[in-house]
Design a protein that fits this description.
This is Single-stranded DNA-binding protein. By secondary structure, the protein is mostly beta strands. It is built from 3 helices and 7 strands, in the order ββββαβββαα.
């Protein structure tokens, strides 16, 4: 079908530590669940309400699987980008069941650790270093300095005062 898109973006918290298993081809498959929540105020009662949705994520990408296995722990906040896939299977009594999952394929998908390490010292011992801000070569060149500073928009200096 031309012109269609199957893309899912989630930002949520891990509900459990990742599970690693080996498929029939010998490739490692990593699975975990991610919780996303919506909060709102109930108009009739004024109470704060919350609804949590659980999403099953399956990683077939070897490198992202390694990252997930090494650094993801229950409660960790992640950004997931993948595709939605529903599969049919039979349970132990032979009843057909359906499962919908977010799939991160070998060549498509993304996994980003959003929060700082929750494990603190444990993650540092394993060699986890949080991402740092990357210098922009064009910004450095525009400013003529060695530190990172954003280049002014349109080559003009910006006032610190808010115009409204």
């Amino acid at each position: 079908m031309a012109g269609s898109v199957n893309k899912v973006i989630l930002v949520g918290n891990l509900g459990r530590d990742p599970e690693v298993r080996t498929g029939q081809s010998g490739a490692r498959i990593v699975t975990f669940s991610v919780a996303t929540s919506d909060t709102w105020n109930d108009r009739s009662s004024g109470e704060r309400r919350e609804r949590t949705e659980w999403h099953k994520v399956v990683i077939f990408n070897e490198r992202l699987g390694d990252v997930a296995e090494k650094y993801l722990k229950k409660g960790r906040k992640v950004y997931i980008e993948g595709s939605l896939q529903t599969r049919k299977w039979a349970d132990q009594s032979g009843v057909e069941r359906y499962t919908t999952e977010i799939i991160i394929d070998r060549f498509r998908g993304e996994l980003v650790l959003i929060d700082s390490q929750r494990g603190g010292e444990a993650d540092m011992e394993e060699g986890y270093n949080p991402p740092r801000q990357i210098e922009s070569s064009s910004s450095t060149r525009n400013q003529g300095g060695s530190g990172w500073e954003p280049a002014p928009m349109g080559g003009q200096d910006l006032d610190d005062e808010i115009p409204f």
